[in-house]
Amino acid sequence: MTKTLIELLKQNKSHAQSFENEQFESVQDGQSPESVTVCCSDSRVLQDEMIENRTPGHVFTCSNIGNRVFEETADGLAVSGDVSYPLVHTGTENVVVIGHTGCGAVTATYKDIVDGIAEPAGIRHCIDLLKLRLTDGVEALPDDIEESEAINRLVEYNVDKQIEFLLDSAIVSDEMNVLGVVYDFQDVYSDERGMLHVVNVNGMRDPERIAEDWPELAAQMNRRWTY
């Protein structure tokens, strides 16, 4: 057993001791989270910490390479089970799709579209799924754009396309809300690292329209790419 893994268990013990048992009482037999978040699997992106989620049963968290909301099934593409479950079975009415600056999954997909890259089968499968949504975005980029800027534009584009898939599905009803944000730890949007920047609300991408319809979001509304 490595020192690193032993330390993880020690940290868990500290976590358990910081909770009072009563905090789990209301969720012993079920859950009814208010929101489901779909985040990219990245060690730099603190999915729970970014929204100070420390309450059991409050947020249903999902993560995968490229913050995808869909998966490939025998019947074709479908909203992934981890996203569908809280929407169908626990009464959750809010979805938050969380991209992030400098996304490795978006970078790999971009490079694969442009030049082709070799990856193990599991990663290849994820890239191929992302390519279904990002190819048109890559083609829409200016010819002289720097790679880092291209990636961060495509991060927004990917969030948009994931939300588009959700809204086109039968899983998401008209009463549900879908929010698209980008987590910035690279000073791309501002110098306040760790901030979530709103880029999409229920499929709407126009910052002025969003600020008009949801003025409480205006302070964090920030898009880099209008297409």
From TrEMBL:
Protein origin, superkingdom: Archaea
Keyword terms, alphabetized: Lyase, Metal-binding, Zinc
Classification via Gene3D superfamilies: Carbonic anhydrase
SMART domains, A to Z: Pro_CA
Enzyme class label: lyase
Family, per entry: Belongs to the beta-class carbonic anhydrase family.
Full protein name: carbonic anhydrase
Organism: Halocatena marina
